Amino acid sequence: MDRSISILKFLKYTIAFVFLTSGLMKLVHTELADYFMNLGIPFPLEVMYIVAWIEICCGALLLLNKYTKLATIALMAIMIGAIILTKLPVLNSGVIHALFNARLDIVMLILLAVLYRNRVIIIKKTP
Predict the structure, then answer these.
(1) Considering its fold, how many domains does the chain have in total?
(2) Do 61 and 15 meet the contact criterion of CB atoms below 8 Å apart?
């Protein structure tokens, strides 16, 4: 039982790291602004900054073990949006190619779903 708790904590900290660094990169690097400009969405820079701050805030919430369920829901929405906007257009290159491009987004989405489902498990140690 102790091992499952430590694995869940490791998963939470790993996901927090990914989204904290992803959000910070969106705020710091101008190349990502160019990428958002080419997505064909309205107000691309504003969307990028909103996504960046949501990633940073939710990553911090996961790190601090606060509002985990809400944070994972917001991050899952971001991952679904990222898959729809950036990975589905690649389908015209072939399914295998699209799956290859989406593999990391899909893995993060699955890990977020695991974290969401297991957040409510509380195991008390008995002395």
Answers:
(1) 1
(2) no
State how far the Cα of 96 lies from the Cα of 109, in Å rounded to an integer: 19
Q: How far apart are CA 12 and CA 14, in angstroms?
A: 5
Which helix (DSSP H) or strand (DSSP E) does residue 71 occupy? Answer: helix 68-82
Residue range(s) defining the domain that contains residue 112: 2-118
Of the pLDDT bands very low, low, confident and very high (cuts 50, 70, 90), residue 26 is very high
**Can you read off the two tokens belonging to residue 91?**
């389908």
Whether the CB-CB separation of 106 and 59 falls below 8 Å is answered with no
**What is the chain's mean pLDDT, rounded?**
87
The reply to whether 123 falls in a domain is no
Closest residue by Cα to residue 6 from 126, 117, 118, 127: 118
pTM: 0.83
